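Exam revision sheet. Question 4 asks you to relate a sequence to its structure. Input first:
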Amino acid sequence: MVPALQRTMTENSLTAAEDNPERLPSANETNRVSLREIIDFAQSAASNLLPLNSILYYLQHPAFLPSISLSLLYFTVLSFSGQMITFLLAIGYTSYAVGVARAVSTIFEVSATWIAPKVQQHIGAMRGGIWFLTWQMIWLAGGLSWFFASGEGLTGNKLLAASGLVGAVILSRVGLWSFDLCAQSIIQEEVDEQSRGAFSTVEASFQNLFELLSYVTTIIFSKADQFQWPAVISVIAVYVAGGTYMAILLVGGFGSSTYLYRRLQKKFSGIDIMQPPNAWTSVVRGAVLRGTCGNAITSRKARRHYGVTVSRAFDPKRHPVACKIRDSKEEEWLADNRMHWFVSKGMELLDGKKISQPFYRVVDMNRSLLFQDELLCCNEDNSPDDSNHSSIFTLRTVEADLTKVPKGLFSVITNSKGKQYYKVSYVLEMTFKSASIFFELLFEGISYGSVRAKY
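Answer key, structure tokens:
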């Protein structure tokens, strides 16, 4: 304690204290205080153990339906996990045959990482998800029908019935993992960066819950000759997931339902629910208008900053020393990880507008000419200059292969040590169409790589 702030209780102050004594709490009041502390502690513990705010945020978020649809797909025994493998071994499959089936299934699953991006590039993540869910539903329904038609795998031709189901499951895996990628694309786009952790945690909890329920079905139907019932439940779960996901895009006759309109208003009171007149013909009328009139929206406001990361000549007046690096190829000091913004937030973007910027790279003559350029975004009002800023994130990555370009088209530079390098000059171009961005790399006016993204 600071001596100057010490107070000595004088005789007068003692007298005053005796005349006006502080009131002490009674025993009952002490108990009430302790009970309050216990209640507060219990509420705090419950909040930590059961994060209700995160759950409510998840349930009310527009990306809830794609996410819960994905989670429902974990409610299945129709995968090469313990339940189905146990059944296959019980009806006469050898371990070798099961291993081959699992290997083929893995190949189909991996192929989804190539198929899904291609489909998304052409029709978008939302419609791609519908395609892939439909693919999965068709094959699983067909496989299950074959299974029942062949005697449910036990009373009839066991191996024939099971083989048809196995083949359908293998083919359905393309749809499953492709839909997973589409759903995650939607979630990453719709959920704010700072809320993705909470959203993904609740999503993972639902996935684990549905996976646990799949094990419950095999506990209830534990015999090999009862496997058809967990299989039926699994197919039903896939169709429920499909119906839930496709409800996002429901128009037409279903959109004319007054009951549905009122239920949605009650459930999502914070969101405007619009029911257009003659909703049952909206799809047809929209297609006709789009074909005859073109895009009715001629311009939009950019909802983010869009740009790429670059290195610039170091300027001590503009750049922090921490970003200063020495470039041995061009033999100059550069400011690394700087942002070059194509578009600023709030900027008016005309439909079909193209924004092009020239760039170059200096590369070793013997290195690969496979380039990757990330389209970076920022939701903040003020765009940062440092590409490592926490508010900046990657929207899409364009990959370009320039290995087939004649080397004579590249400039050659030589440093002071006599070492030669290629200087590859190219253009990054952004084209704004409807609600999407077309981002591509051009060399001598020819596109060598492109991606599409929402904005």
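Marking note for examiners. Residues 338 and 386 are 5 Å apart (CA to CA).
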